[in-house]
Amino acid sequence: MKYDDASWHSGGNFPKDLPMEAGATHTGMFVAWAFLSGLAGEMYLIDFPNEIPKLLSRSITPGKFFLEACDGKFTDEDLNADGNAFAQAYFDFKTGSYVADYEAVLGDDVVDLYYVEDSWKNFDRLSPLLDRRFADWKTQRPAESL
Q1: What confidence score (pLDDT) does residue 143 get?
Q2: What is the distance, to the nearest Å, from the Cα of residue 137 to the centroid of all Cα atoms in its chain?
Q3: Which of 4, 3, 6, 22 is nearest to 122 (CA)?
Q4: Across all residues in the chain, what is the average pLDDT?
Q5: What 3-state class would DSSP assign to 29?
Q6: Which of 134, 41, 6, 140 is CA-nearest to residue 52?
Q7: Is the pTM value of this prediction over 0.85?
Q8: Pairing verdict, β 73-75 and 2-5
Q9: Using N-to-C axis directions, what is the helix angle for 98-106 and 120-140, rounded to 10°?
Q10: 56 three-state secondary structure
């Protein structure tokens, strides 16, 4: 299952004055948070063990990490079972509230969400809300799915 693809954001309403990489920031923030929260898929833990330390050391921004480590594609292979269940409930563009939360936290200072800077400062602003959403989601899940 593919949740998002940076290339999906390059047409239509994408601002002409931004580099294409700006289409990866919103998903990069979520993917970086998920990986740093222990929700990375087995592929990254076993086959690409050098990727997550780049996030831990903050030697790469969340959006750049998403483009390099995930090739700009966010799929179910990127997350473990809990990560996928949460992403399906929260990240989904049609039914989840991630984009609304992203906009509420980071959208005030920009004319369009694509202008949100791919930075650890912005990640640090968004991360506490993602932590709360994940904690709330865990307490609301049916017992058999835990």
Answers
A1: 57
A2: 16
A3: 22
A4: 92
A5: helix
A6: 41
A7: yes
A8: antiparallel
A9: 140
A10: helix
